[in-house]
Write a structure and sequence with these properties.
Chain lengths: 330, 326, 394
């Protein structure tokens, strides 16, 4: 590999380390969730973000605390990248009273209003118009906030995608449409349901820039998102960023993902975003091996504490099921 | 006091609330300066408040409502207009899965102070895609409030309340009510949700009616009065929250309930009202509860066919007499 | 084979009984001879036993329902066995309903459980009727198809208006129902006539003190004034047997044995009741034997455990209200007996003895007798003799 052009040039060291930490936090958190799920401590279903960490982290590293994100059923990574408290996130996934949503949302519906996480929705494509609305709100209020809207390749074939991108473009709304193209909508390969190779190509149809990035390269994601965020903040309107990535696990729960060819899986595993980023940081002297290991150790500990907190937390009282239907009925 | 039509009263409510609170903005198809709303409810508002706050949209109902939800979650108070109630189907996920559930699903962290205005009702020969009355669907969705004003006076007072409410409100209007008139006070007034209005007092039969059926019931009441029968017309004004007590009190007084509803009978709003009364006021009934509703058909086009399916004053007169004799 | 369990007949006069309590549930296994239900009839609660072993297939009468003698209470057989076709729930219920209309007061809050509703009434009319304890079957409905309306019930209430505020409405059934029937029958049929005589109770008092003093010392049975009266009355009756009799239609039955019933108040669930346990063959018994027997009988009667035999077969009745300070009262004859003696309180009264006013413990006895079969003079002679015994022969 050529050493003349440094990959990380122009990105502050603090930002790089924070991104590394966040990616690792997501990875270790998801591994813990998988472990707890295996022990039957998590009700319902699970959609793990392992393998896609670079997308959420590369985008969110460009966001301020009052910027907004919308998330999906595969949303733990988005939450953590936006700064979520691991304890409250884990507790929510376990259905505990101490969770972000007091046990009413679960794995597929974590929100953190204080951090601008407008919540994960589990109807594929449903959050795209909501992100447009949040961006409209930012524009109307004149706050310079931006919105990052995460969704998958599957959602790009839902009507909401088209309505929302069109509306965002005509009004030049400050929103990033971040498509996590992990090649599969559940078990359906994207090439079977989409006639074009790149989803980002659709951007031109709505009159906005479309960018394709290696979604397993956090620096590439970061740089693309930075450009889009800057444009959005300055009134330049929306961008569609397609991040080519891959999930390491199946779609959900016990899906063994047998519909994916083994050599394809093997190929993508070699492109593990965390391994690549670690190597880059060490190669370019941002971190030493020892420092990188120390970060991992700390994060493993923090995740363990979050898990203990969640496991020990109480469940809600059954009657709490009746609360929060309305802000105020009368 | 001044006499205003239902449309003018709605327009006045929107204007007053937009002047009062700059977070309020309108979003919908053809509501802006060129058309000013399919029924002219937004007349003059784009000129007064600008096209940013009275925003024409593409024909994208799901995204109109979705965008209104997103804006409401982030500090705005949008009023979305869906040109015909029939088109709410296109935005159903945003209404029923998003707006209705966000406050609950996220444990109360986020709220959606959103109003979706949309007209229902048959009687204008515009056939199956522009004539339905679907309020029962929304009553059946926890998390949504449902307003159903029958008069200009109620329309204004309820819309102002809806805009100030912190929960998503389905604010339904009725195409035939648009031209009806009420005396409107000069001073500001709001009508609280969950307070039914007794549109006419009577001792013999309680008639539960909404929207255009209130007007039909009032006509029927005059005819029945000449026969010595006095009906009491209860207009709930909001279906969620529902003022059960006023309905039950009236039934306890008269002992008889006729429900007149402009929607199809099966699982319509009347089914719910009948169930509530039989659960909570059974011991006060003199006779079985009776429903007058549309048959379970789409709304047909030809006036002959359409008139056949919509309940009218004559049907109510007959229903009341049947009830007294059944 | 399905075996029915019917309402048993416990006496010649018994026409129906009330189901007091089911001891077994439908579907429960029962053994032959095992009690399955408690039945209240003619003042007595009795357990009805299962005639066979099997499963209780069907309960035909719910608790507090009256069932005519011989009508089925339950069916017992193998699980799933069909009930006999001759038995239909609706028919049984209809019979009861008709009877109740004839007997019940219009204001009876009681609704018969399991009764087939034949009355058409609106829900509001039903609620009002229930609140006011009105039997809807007594009201003529004026609503559509004859339905009873709120107006109909309100009209009925105003017609039968009782300005007195009702504290509670107690259904009259079981023992009190029998008392009601017997007493009104007695007053309606017997030609009641009464005689009062005053007796110097000095000797009764002295005798009782003496016997009770001994009893205290030896741990024996205490003797009551009623016991002494039972003994004295028996002696007098042997000499005046016309009063030791029952009048049955066209004949007067004069009995050899003197079986004296003693009226006893019973209290159950805070409600006062009345039973008359019978001491048999009093003429053959000593005072102490009488005292001992009456004590046991009274206890059993009060506990609701007196047997049917112990409560029937009397030839004469004594009723004593002296303990409440009542001086004189005129009792109603316990039919079909011919006479009854009412006993008043012993009170110190001034009496003239050999020209001087002295105080004496005096007791007034009132005999009610049926003048259809006993005339005044024989009755008076009986009383004269009784006085003599009590004053001189104890």
């Amino acid at each position: 590999m050529s050493m003349q052009a440094s990959k990380t040039t122009g990105i502050e060291k603090e930002t790089l380390v924070t991104m590394y930490r966040k990616m690792l936090e997501i990875r270790r958190f998801e591994e813990k969730v998988w472990h707890l799920f295996g022990r039957n401590l998590i009700p319902g279903t699970l959609h793990l973000y392992i393998g896609e960490e670079a997308v959420a982290v590369g985008v969110c590293a460009n966001l301020k605390i009052d910027d907004y994100i919308t998330s999906t059923h595969r949303g733990h990574g988005h939450c953590i990248a936006k700064g979520a408290d691991l304890k409250k996130t884990m507790a929510e996934i376990l259905g505990k009273k101490t969770g972000y949503c007091k046990g009413k949302g679960g794995s597929m519906h974590v929100a953190d209003a204080a951090l601008g996480n407008l919540g994960a929705t589990a109807v594929v494509g449903s959050a795209i118009p909501i992100a447009v609305g949040a961006a409209l709100s930012c524009q109307l209020r004149g706050t310079k906030q931006v919105v990052a809207c995460f969704f998958g390749d599957g959602a790009s074939n839902n009507g909401t995608f088209h309505e929302a991108l069109n509306m965002a473009a005509i009004w030049r709304l400050p929103v990033l449409f971040v498509c996590e193209n992990n090649l599969y909508a559940m078990g359906t390969r994207i090439s079977n349901v989409t006639a074009i190779e790149n989803i980002a190509d659709r951007a031109s149809a709505y009159g906005m820039p479309g960018v394709i990035v290696d979604g397993n390269d956090v620096i590439e994601v970061y740089r693309a998102a930075k450009e889009a965020v800057d444009r959005a903040r300055n009134g330049g309107g929306p961008t569609l960023i397609e991040c080519k990535t891959y999930r390491h696990k199946g779609h959900s729960r016990f899906d063994p993902a047998k519909y994916r060819p083994p050599d394809e899986v093997e190929e993508w595993m070699k492109k593990d975003p965390i391994l690549r980023f670690r190597n880059t940081l060490i190669e370019e002297g941002v971190l030493t091996e020892k420092q990188a290991d120390e970060i991992d150790r700390q994060i493993t500990e923090t995740v363990e504490e979050a898990a203990q907190f969640a496991v020990k937390s109480p469940y809600p009282q059954p009657e709490e099921a009746l609360e929060d239907v309305f802000v105020k009925l009368r | 006091m001044k006499e205003l039509t239902y449309v003018e009263a709605l327009n006045e409510a929107l204007r007053e609330e937009m002047m009062r609170d700059e977070r309020v903005f309108l979003i919908g198809e053809d509501i802006g300066p060129y058309w000013e709303g399919a029924f002219k409810v937004t007349k003059g508002l784009a000129k007064q408040f600008g096209v940013e706050r009275v925003r024409d949209t593409p024909i994208s109902e799901a995204c109109i409502v979705g965008a209104a939800v997103g804006a409401a979650m982030t500090g705005m108070r949008p009023v979305a207009e869906i040109m015909f109630g029939d088109l709410l189907t296109l935005a159903m996920d945003q209404i029923a899965n998003q707006a209705a559930k966000i406050h609950y699903m996220f444990g109360g962290q986020l709220k959606v102070p959103l109003v979706i205005r949309s007209p229902f009702g048959a009687g204008k020969s515009i056939a199956a895609h522009h004539s339905q009355s679907l309020e029962a669907w929304f009553m059946h969705t926890p998390g949504l409030k449902v307003a159903v004003p029958s008069t200009a006076y109620d329309a204004k007072g309820l819309l102002k309340t809806a805009i100030r409410d912190d929960d998503p409100v389905m604010f339904f209007e009725h195409k035939l009510c648009y031209t009806t008139k009420s005396m409107i006070p000069e001073e500001e007034y709001l009508i609280p949700f969950g307070e039914a209005d007794v549109k006419r007092e009577g001792s013999d039969v309680t008639v539960f009616a909404t929207f255009w059926m209130v007007h039909q019931a009032l006509k029927a009441a005059d005819k029945l009065s000449k026969k010595g029968i006095e009906i009491e017309i209860v207009d709930p004004r909001t279906l969620v929250p529902l003022d059960k007590e006023t309905i039950l009190d009236s039934v306890r007084k008269t002992g008889r309930l006729l429900i007149v509803e402009e929607d199809c009978k099966t699982c319509g709003i009347g089914a719910e009202i009948a169930a509530i009364v039989s659960e909570e006021a059974f011991d006060y009934l003199e006779s079985p509860i009776k429903r007058i509703a549309e048959p379970d058909t789409p709304i047909p086009f030809s006036p002959v066919l359409e008139n056949y399916v919509i309940p009218n004053d004559e049907a109510i007169v007959k229903g009341v007499i049947d009830l007294l004799e059944s | 084979m399905v075996t029915d369990v019917v309402m048993p007949r416990y006496s010649l006069t018994m026409q129906k009984g009330t189901v007091a309590k089911w001891l077994k549930k439908e579907g429960e296994a029962v053994k032959k001879g095992e009690p399955i239900v408690q039945v209240e009839a003619d003042k007595v609660t009795t357990e009805v036993e299962s005639p066979v072993s099997g499963v209780l297939l069907k309960i035909c009468a719910e608790e507090q329902t009256e069932v005519p003698v011989g009508e089925p209470l339950a069916f017992i057989g193998k699980p799933g066995e069909p009930l006999p076709e001759t038995w239909k729930a609706s028919e049984a219920a209809t019979v009861q309903q008709k009877e109740s209309v004839g007997l019940a007061s219009p204001f009876s809050a009681r609704r018969k459980p399991g009764k087939v509703e034949k009355v058409r009434a609106s829900p509001v009319a039903r609620r009002l009727a229930k609140q006011h304890g009105i039997d809807l079957s007594l009201i003529q409905g004026t609503g559509p198809k004859g339905r009873i309306t709120r107006e109909d019930v309100l009209r009925f209430i105003s017609l039968h208006k009782d300005v007195r505020a009702v504290r509670e409405t107690i259904p009259v059934r079981g023992m009190q129902r029998v008392i009601a029937e017997r007493m009104s029958e007695s007053v309606r049929t017997a030609a009641h006539c009464s005689l009062t005589i005053e007796v110097d109770a000095s000797r009764m008092i002295a005798l009782r003190q003496k016997l009770n003093g001994e009893a205290e010392a030896e741990g024996g049975i205490k003797v009551s004034y009623t016991d002494i009266l039972v003994k004295a009355v028996a002696t007098a009756l042997k000499e005046h047997p016309v009063l030791n009799s029952t009048f049955e239609g066209d004949r007067l039955k004069i009995f050899e044995d003197v079986n004296i019933g003693v009226a006893v108040e019973t209290v159950a669930d805070g409600t006062s009741g009345l039973l008359v346990p019978v001491i048999r063959q009093v003429q053959k018994k000593s005072l102490l034997e009488i005292a001992k027997e009456s004590k046991g009988l009274i206890e059993r009667a009060r506990a609701g455990k007196a047997s049917h035999d112990e409560l029937t077969g009397g030839t004469f009745t004594i009723t004593n209200l002296g303990m409440y300070g009542v001086e004189t009262f005129v009792p109603i004859i316990n039919p079909p007996e011919s006479a009854i003696l009412g006993v008043g309180a012993i009170i110190e009264r001034p009496v003239v003895i050999e020209g001087k006013v002295k105080t004496r413990p005096m007791m007034r006895l009132t005999l009610s007798f049926d003048h259809r079969v006993v005339n005044g003079a024989p009755a008076a002679r009986f009383m004269q003799r009784l006085k003599e015994i009590l004053e001189n022969e104890l």
